[in-house]
């Protein structure tokens, strides 16, 4: 599947687009980790939960669960919230 990468993670992927394989969000993130070591930890915490500032959208629908099935021909968008004051 096509993956849109937020600018804060471009240092891992080298750009805004990547490819990942996997039947679920967890598998797709594991594949991204295999291709771009260290990227998964920036999105998933030590308790295997999605970090508060990260949002995933599969084909336009927000995904809240790592076990969510994904369309291998679809698109996964990773959004990183901005904070500050």
Overall mean pLDDT: 95
Rg measurement, Å: 12 Å
Shape, principal axes of CA atoms: globular
Which residues form runs of ≥5 with pLDDT under 50? none
Strand order across the largest sheet:
2-1-5-3-4
User: Treating each run of at least 4 consecutive H or I residues as one helix, how many helices?
Assistant: 2
Strand % is: 15-25%
Total strands: the figure is: 5
Describe the biggest sheet?
5 strands, mixed
Task: Give the domain tally.
Answer: 1
CATH topology: Ubiquitin-like (UB roll)
**Could you spell the SSE succession in H and E letters?**
EHEHEEE
Structural class: alpha+beta
Give me the CATH superfamily. Beta-grasp domain
The CATH architecture term is Roll
Can you identify the CATH class?
Alpha Beta
Protein name: MoaD/ThiS family protein
Give a description of the structure.
The chain has helices spanning 10-13, 25-35, and strands spanning 2-4, 17-19, 54-58, 61-63, 75-80. With 85 residues, it is an alpha+beta fold. It has a single domain, classed as Beta-grasp domain (Ubiquitin-like (UB roll), Roll). Strand 3 (54-58) and strand 4 form a beta hairpin. The radius of gyration is 12 Å and the shape is globular. This is MoaD/ThiS family protein. InterPro entries: Beta-grasp_dom_sf, Mopterin_synth/thiamin_S_b, Sulfur_Carrier/Prot_Modifier.
């Amino acid at each position: 599947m096509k993956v849109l990468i937020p600018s804060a993670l471009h240092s891992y992927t080298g750009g805004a687009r990547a490819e990942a394989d996997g039947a679920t969000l967890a598998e797709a993130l594991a594949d991204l980790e295999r291709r771009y070591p260290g990227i998964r930890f920036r999105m998933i915490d030590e308790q295997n939960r999605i970090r508060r500032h990260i949002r995933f959208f599969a084909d336009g629908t927000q995904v809240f669960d790592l076990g969510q099935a994904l369309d291998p021909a679809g698109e996964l968008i990773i959004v990183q919230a901005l904070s500050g004051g």
